[in-house]
Amino acid sequence: MHKLIRKLRGLFYSAACRLACGGRIEPKKVVFNQTDGNGYGCNQKYIAAEILRRGLGWDLVWLCRDPEKARATMPEGIRIVPFFSFAAMRELMTAGMWCSNQFFRHHVKHCGLRKRPGQTYFQTWHGSLGIKFTHSGVQWEKVHPESEGNEFKRAEAETMDYLIANSEWDAKRQLNHFYGHGEVKMFGHPRNDIFFSDAARAAAVAKVRERYGIAPDEKIVLYLPTLRLDKRYDGYLYDYAALTDALARRFGGKWRAVARMHPVLLHKGRALSAVGEGIDASGWPDVQELMSAADALVSDYSSAMFDYMLMHRPVFAYVPDLESYTANEGLLYPLTDTPFGVGRSVEELVDSIAKFDSEGYPAAVDAFLAGKGCCEDGHASERTVDLMEEIACRAS
């Protein structure tokens, strides 16, 4: 019964949208989806910025859950449309290109969204050289064959035209994640272009320090834990004083802790209840800017670690729930295979900081990246928009 209702609703949306817009597809319209409408960031931000920089005059549409809040962070030249709306469906059905770092799961499941002939789907997944087991694809269905989302993810994956990857490892993971569909483009990840630009990084540093009142002589350690599907909180770091003290002893100077919880994490206030003197930056839309401003990173299983390492700055993994996380969600390879310091407790985290090898770390990072076939060089946005221009030109 539910499937029939969804099908009828999808047919209604499809017919209504086509009547409202005359059925025309606009080759130079791009609809962006950033982590289910969560603000201006990730690969989508940097692709849109490159389109604007070129002055192409395209119609850029951003699907957003909180349009009023997002407007303050976005440049002119981008139209904001409410994520859960008939208007969003109308834009999606008339855009020449979709650009998403996530599935359009709401629009596919509840509104019957289907890509039309003449549309091009760019999938720029928000993961990287990540270590986490992904929650769709061939491997996922072997373990979770009855997962409710499998049907919709598989159907949507079949419509993906291009997968934007930053390494041979990422390419293989994405092909598995999207059931073998889509043509892989080894462009690098547009969101990581900032790490290769001195000017862009300096602007981000100034922006973050001004927003949170961090003095020029203070160093920043950024804490970026990932989402736990079981919503447990015992795997998070709360003793920020021990962390900043350990960093001060090892690297010198005064340190400030900045925490940004996963955007999908519910009840983030509970997870941050013991931050103390730390700064809660969970509302910051672009994590790449926060990473640019940080002198060291602490995470757990987040792919953010593998973006941050491109700057050859210290990374530490705090994983007190390693056994339960591995059993419940799975890791693709051991954390010990990375160049990162690993702590199963606060004491072990402090010890890994004390033992950090400043001389050997850069070479270890380079060896890891080479082993994964990484192609990041700071020009991913340019390559992506070059391809978009070719597609728009052919369709016009």
Task: Summarize the topology.
Blueprint: H1 2-21, E1 26-33, H2 42-53, E2 59-64, H3 67-71, E3 78-82, H4 86-94, E4 95-100, H5 105-111, E5 120-123, H6 138-143, H7 150-157, E6 162-165, H8 168-177, E7 183-186, H9 198-212, E8 218-224, H10 240-251, E9 254-259, H11 268-271, E10 279-280, H12 287-293, E11 296-299, H13 304-308, E12 315-318, H14 322-328, E13 341-343, H15 346-354, H16 361-371, H17 380-395
Parallel strand pairs: 1-2, 1-4, 2-3, 4-5, 5-6, 6-7, 8-9, 8-11, 9-10, 11-12, 12-13
Structural features, described:
The chain is of the alpha/beta class and 396 residues long. The protein folds into two domains: 2-192 and 378-395, 3-Layer(aba) Sandwich (Rossmann fold), CATH 3.40.50; 198-371, CDP-glycerol glycerophosphotransferase, C-terminal domain (Rossmann fold). The chain is built from 17 helices and 13 strands. It has a seven-stranded parallel sheet with strand order 3-2-1-4-5-6-7, with helices on both faces. A six-stranded parallel sheet has the order 10-9-8-11-12-13, with helices on both faces. Strand 4, helix 5 (105-111) and strand 5 (120-123) form a beta-alpha-beta unit. The longest helix is centred in the N-terminal third of the chain and has 20 residues, at 2-21. Residues 266-271 have low confidence and may be disordered.
How many separate domains? 2
What is the overall pLDDT average?
Answer: 89
Approximate helicity band: 40-55%
- Main CATH class of the largest domain: Alpha Beta
By secondary-structure content and strand pairing, the structural class works out as: alpha/beta
Helix tally equals 17
Name given to the CATH architecture of the largest domain: 3-Layer(aba) Sandwich
Shape: globular
Rg over C-alpha atoms, rounded to the nearest angstrom:
21 Å
